[in-house]
Structures are given as structure tokens and as C-alpha cells.
């Protein structure tokens, strides 16, 4: 079957009665959907399942609706209003940079810091603005004092860059890494904690865990793991790339020492934005990635000493936070899980299908990785794209493989159903 052209795709979807609202060029004439559609006084479960309530939110993005983009696990698009704010800040910065960038915009980053800190539930003095999770986590992994023979514990499913960073410390500083294999996804939180407890050693100085594992969508019992590590005086770095603005958990729910996230993922802020949280009493002992003046030793701003940069993406974080606040953390979480269950639930009992996660609310989030009998991940992802213009991520890991599906708030139920139909065809007829 040839690739569907944009027009053909749109007309097929419309014929199927599946086109609730298409932003941008394909938008129906008339007023955009009203914000009143999203009645936040309704219980999250009921609101999540009411497709018409989400039209206002779906229309906030001018995404290309000829593509069904279910790969929101890497980088996400910003809602139009966020992008417009970013573009205006960028334009303004270039009017007279010594004034418009340096004097007007850079001081406003303090307000951004305070807003993000309030959303995460920490002090502004504990939050550094960074360009992404990588910058934040590597600041900790490279800046945490370790001596030869000291050990860092992590898992085989942590983010590849951070495992590489630790390997560099092994080569350069003579430290050692323990990478434990997680128990199966349906293992209880207590079993996960026991697995970590057994892997801690008297030389373990730092633990790195993911709040939500990007390969499968599995959520770890962060709070319980932090309590375990703290009982042995070991600090914990949480990779929150898939946590903030996805899972409603805040700092006090996690209780970790360091937390790094990207705001261009689930918050929908401009690309190249993130934050690093460092518990106040740990700021002084953590070396910044780029050396800062000595008098900033105990100041969170020492982690922002990166030279000239554009303030525009950071200033537009506020617009993304406003939109997130308008939707509500619980409603967002509920809607994302509704979209996941819409395609996942019918598949779980299909013979041979392997779902690499436990579907409980404290065990998994919006993204999920599934293996289909007789269908390798790479060819299936290629087929979905070439035949159906559906984007998913193939996952190939020594412990599992499959396609990872990550919806977003702009995703419609009709788009999810298009995925389900395509998968049913693939299961029935193969990738012919
Ligand atoms: C679990 C995890 N950690 C860290 C990162 C790195 O994020 P960034 O590229 O925004 O730094 C990613 C990116 O997908 C991720 O999935």
C-alpha cells in the first residue's frame, strides 16, 4: 500500500468520523474551541474520557495532523502560545542585546526560577535552570566527589548517556559502577526495594535511578528507594526526564537529593530548557560543570555559569506553566493514561503480545512498550510510518524489545484508534 498523502489521510479520517478538530491549515472555519469545554470541576476520570472536553487543549498545538505522532518520548512540540512567547522574546532580545537581553530579560530568569520551583515544590534557591536533563544529571554525575574504589549504583535500564558518563568516571577516576537488573515489571515495590538493598555496598556513595524508565514506561517507587538509600546515608539522583509535568509527583513525594529534568518534554516548554534541583545542604559540595566564582560555592546559580545564552526559551517556560496550570496536573495525568489504555487495554490479552509494564497507576505512565508475536520492532515501526504515517519508537534492549507508543495531550482518540486499527491489521496479516 502506498504512503497516504495528506489529503487522502484527512478525508479517510473525516469519513471515519474521527476528526474532532484539526489545528492550523486544516482547521474548520469558525471560532477555536472554547476553554470552557475543559470543565475542571469534573472528576479526572470522567473528564479524561470525554473527547469533546479536550478539543480546546488539542487545538492549542498546530501540529501536522497528516502525521500521527505517537513519539512524544524524545522531544515534544510546544503549544502555539508557548512558541509565540518564545519567538517574541527572541525578537526582543535582538533589538539591542546589551539592554534588551542583558538588562531586561536576564533578570527575569529569577521569576522563572521561582515559578518552576513552586511547580516542583522546592525553594527557588535549590533550582538551577539548565538546557535539559542531560546537563542537570551530568552536572551531578561529574561534579559529585568520588574517590578511587567508590561505587555508584544504577540499573541496566537507566539512560544510556548517564551510563556512559559513569563509565568515563571509571576510566578517569577509578570509581566502580554497579548496574543492577530490575525485577520484572509486575514485581511489587517491596521487591524492587529489596533488589536495590541487596546491591548496595559499604562503598556505594551515590545512587542514580529513573523516575520513569524511558524504554518501557515503568515507574519506580522513588520515595521508597530514597528512604532505603538515606537509611545508609547515600544520596539519590533521580533522572526525572519523564517525570515533571507528566507524573503529578513533586519534590516532597520523591524526597531525593538531586533531580534533573527537561522542560521541553512533558511541560511543552521550548526546546533546550530544563532544571536541576539540588537539596540546599548539598549545593556547596557539588562541583559545577563550568567553574563559577568561588563566592558562589553555596549558591544554586553556580550551575548556570555557562556563558552567553538565549533567555527566550527560558522566559517562555512561564507560558507553558500557565497552560499546564490551566489543565491541572491530575487532569493531564488522567487524560494521558486514558489515551494509553485506549490502545493498550484491547491488546493485553492478545495471544503472544508482551506488555513490558504493570498498568497500575503507581507503576506506569503515558508511554508503553509492547512486543508483538512475530513482528520485530524495527520493521513494525517502519511499516507504521510508511503505510500509516504513524510515528512510534522501536526499542531494542538486551532485556526487551518492542514499539514504544507515547501519546500527548494533543493526541485525539481518533489518532489512537488509527494506531489500534493498524496494529490489528499487522497482527492479522503481517507487514505485507
Ligand atoms: C530517561 C531519560 N533520561 C534523560 C534523557 C535526556 O533528555 P535530554 O535529551 O532532554 O537531555 C532522556 C531523553 O529522552 C530520557 O528518556
Q: What brief labels describe this structure?
A:
binds pyridoxal-5'-phosphate, Aspartate Aminotransferase, domain 2, disordered N terminus, four-stranded antiparallel sheet, seven-stranded mixed sheet, 13% strand, globular, 432 residues, alpha/beta, 13 strands
Descriptive overview:
The chain is an alpha/beta fold and about 425 residues long. It has a domain at about 105-320: Type I PLP-dependent aspartate aminotransferase-like (Major domain) (Aspartate Aminotransferase, domain 2, 3-Layer(aba) Sandwich). The chain has 16 helices and 13 strands. The chain has helices at about 5-15, 45-50, 55-60, 80-95, 95-105, 110-120, 135-145, 160-175, 190-200, 220-230, 250-255, 310-315, 315-325, 330-345, 375-390, 415-430; strands spanning about 70, 125-130, 150-155, 175-180, 205-210, 235-240, 260, 275-280, 355, 370, 390, 395, 400-405. Helix 7 (about 135-145) runs parallel beside helix 8 and helix 14 (about 330-345) packs parallel to helix 16 (about 415-430). Pyridoxal-5'-phosphate (PLP) binds near residues 74 and 239. Pyridoxal-5'-phosphate binds near residues 133, 159, 241 and 242.
Amino acid at each position: 500500500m502506498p504512503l497516504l498523502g495528506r489529503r487522502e489521510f484527512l478525508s479517510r479520517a473525516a469519513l471515519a468520523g474521527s476528526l474532532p478538530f484539526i489545528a492550523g491549515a486544516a482547521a474548520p472555519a469558525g471560532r477555536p474551541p472554547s476553554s470552557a469545554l475543559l470543565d475542571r470541576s469534573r472528576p479526572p476520570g470522567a473528564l479524561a474520557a470525554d473527547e469533546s472536553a479536550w478539543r480546546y487543549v488539542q487545538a492549542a498545538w498546530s501540529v501536522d495532523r497528516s502525521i500521527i505522532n505517537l513519539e512524544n518520548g524524545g522531544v515534544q512540540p510546544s503549544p502555539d502560545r508557548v512558541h509565540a512567547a518564545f519567538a517574541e522574546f527572541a525578537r526582543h532580545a535582538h533589538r539591542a542585546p546589551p539592554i534588551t537581553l542583558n538588562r531586561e530579560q536576564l533578570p527575569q530568569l529569577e521569576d522563572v526560577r521561582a515559578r518552576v520551583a513552586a511547580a516542583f515544590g522546592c525553594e527557588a534557591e535549590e533550582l538551577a535552570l539548565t538546557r535539559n536533563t542531560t546537563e542537570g544529571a551530568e552536572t551531578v554525575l561529574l561534579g559529585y566527589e568520588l574517590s578511587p574504589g567508590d561505587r555508584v549504583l544504577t540499573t541496566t535500564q537507566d539512560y544510556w548517556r548517564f551510563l556512559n558518563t559513569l563509565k568515563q568516571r571509571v576510566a578517569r577516576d577509578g570509581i566502580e559502577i554497579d548496574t543492577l537488573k530490575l525485577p520484572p515489571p509486575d514485581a511489587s515495590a517491596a521487591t524492587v526495594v529489596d533488589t536495590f538493598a541487596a546491591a548496595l555496598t559499604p562503598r556505594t556513595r551515590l545512587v542514580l535511578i529513573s523516575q520513569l524508565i524511558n524504554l518501557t514506561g515503568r515507574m519506580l517507587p522513588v520515595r521508597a528507594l530514597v528512604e532505603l538509600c538515606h537509611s545508609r546515608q547515600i544520596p539519590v539522583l533521580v533522572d526525572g526526564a519523564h517525570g515533571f509535568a507528566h507524573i503529578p509527583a513533586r519534590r516532597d513525594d520523591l524526597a531525593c537529593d538531586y533531580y534533573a529534568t527537561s522542560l521541553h518534554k512533558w511541560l511543552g516548554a521550548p526546546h533546550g530548557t530544563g532544571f536541576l534541583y539540588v537539596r540546599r545542604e548539598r549545593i556547596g559540595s557539588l562541583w559545577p560543570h563550568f567553574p563559577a566564582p568561588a563566592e558562589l560555592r553555596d549558591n544554586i546559580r553556580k550551575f548556570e555559569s555557562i556563558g552567553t545564552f538565549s533567555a527566550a526559551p527560558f522566559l517562555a517556560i512561564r507560558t507553558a506553566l500557565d497552560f499546564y496550570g490551566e489543565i491541572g496536573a491530575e487532569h493531564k495525568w488522567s487524560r494521558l493514561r486514558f489515551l494509553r489504555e485506549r490502545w493498550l487495554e484491547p491488546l493485553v490479552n492478545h495471544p503472544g503480545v508482551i506488555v513490558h509494564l504493570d498498568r497500575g497507576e503507581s507503576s506506569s505512565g503515558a508511554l508503553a512498550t509492547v512486543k508483538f508475536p512475530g513482528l520485530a520492532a524495527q520493521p513494525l515501526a517502519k511499516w507504521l510510518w510508511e503505510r500509516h504515517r504513524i510515528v512510534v519508537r522501536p526499542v531494542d534492549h538486551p532485556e526487551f524489545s518492542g514499539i514504544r507508543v507515547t501519546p500527548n495531550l494533543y493526541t485525539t482518540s481518533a489518532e489512537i484508534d488509527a494506531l489500534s486499527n493498524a496494529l490489528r491489521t499487522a497482527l492479522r496479516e503481517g507487514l505485507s
